[in-house]
């Protein structure tokens, strides 16, 4: 019987690459994202990639919006059986603090709160699997610590592009490590995918996009190659700690210097922020 993977953010970019890679390995994939039209095309790619696999995996789509944590809770509640959770939802902008309908910054909602909520809600189901795994694809091993987690956890007073990026990566390290300690049969990882040729940055001003696209074409890794590397990273994880994974699916260094002292408080604060959806 094939493994079942939920790939969040599967309707574009790196999530697309990972979904097709999983299909080629015989994994059944639940694609979660905002576009049913995009998902339908990717499901056909998954079927083609798995055409020689026996038994045939299955592919389904579930609509979800990472800006709306109620839809994240609903997604988690709709999953009856799961082996692997892979989260790639995200955005790249230079905007300031931009609140969602839940009152959270858009970037942090996608990069942190929606991921924390999914990983927390689905960990009990993953623990029922003989091979439960969680992989958050963001910035493992390449971000700096966010040292204002005590005084300005949500970045309402000192928001910047750098602080948003550092806090997102830092918070992912922390909550994944805490979940790994609480669920010792499930493997948890935080990966940095590197520079990948996708539609990354669609929310940025047109001038910046015009500068980024040629660089992606010249130097960016193919999203399907990235998918292969992320699959290798997923399969190489160990229990009991957060696994930091680099762009080639290998061990990507350690956590930040303030990780140990901060992780418990970060985990508690995330739980408090998300408690109405828990």
Automatic annotation (TrEMBL):
Keywords: Oxidoreductase. Gene3D superfamilies: NAD(P)-binding Rossmann-like Domain. It comes from the Eukaryota. Signal peptide: none annotated. GO terms for molecular function: oxidoreductase activity. Transmembrane segments: none annotated. InterPro entries: NAD(P)-bd_dom_sf, SDR_fam, Sec_Metab_Biosynth_Oxidored. PANTHER family: ALCOHOL DEHYDROGENASE-LIKE C-TERMINAL DOMAIN-CONTAINING PROTEIN (PTHR47534:SF3), YALI0E05731P (PTHR47534). This is NAD(P)-binding protein.
């Amino acid at each position: 019987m094939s493994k079942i993977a939920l790939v969040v953010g599967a309707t574009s970019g790196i999530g697309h690459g990972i979904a097709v890679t999983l299909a080629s390995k015989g994994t059944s994939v639940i694609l979660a994202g905002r576009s049913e039209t995009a998902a339908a095309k990717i499901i056909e790619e998954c079927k083609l990639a798995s055409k020689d696999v026996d038994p045939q995996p299955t592919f389904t789509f579930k609509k979800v919006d990472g800006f709306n944590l109620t839809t994240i809770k609903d997604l988690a509640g709709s999953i009856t059986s799961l082996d692997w959770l892979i989260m790639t939802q995200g955005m790249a902008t230079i905007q300031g603090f931009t609140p969602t309908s839940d009152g959270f910054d858009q970037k942090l909602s996608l990069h942190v709160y929606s991921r924390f909520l999914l990983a927390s809600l689905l960990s009990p189901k993953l623990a029922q699997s003989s091979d439960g795994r969680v992989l958050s694809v963001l910035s493992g091993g390449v971000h700096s610590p966010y040292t204002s987690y005590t005084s300005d956890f949500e970045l309402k007073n000192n928001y910047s592009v750098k602080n948003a990026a550092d806090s997102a990566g830092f918070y992912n390290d922390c909550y994944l490590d805490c979940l790994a300690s609480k669920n010792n049969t499930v493997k948890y990882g935080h990966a940095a995918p590197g520079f990948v040729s996708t539609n990354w940055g669609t929310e940025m001003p047109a001038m910046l996009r015009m500068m980024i696209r040629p660089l992606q074409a010249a130097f960016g890794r193919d999203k399907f190659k990235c998918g292969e590397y992320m699959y290798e990273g997923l399969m190489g994880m160990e229990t009991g700690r957060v696994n930091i994974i680099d762009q080639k699916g290998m061990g990507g260094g350690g956590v930040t210097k303030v990780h140990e002292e901060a992780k418990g408080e970060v985990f508690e604060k995330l739980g408090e922020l998300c408690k109405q959806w828990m």
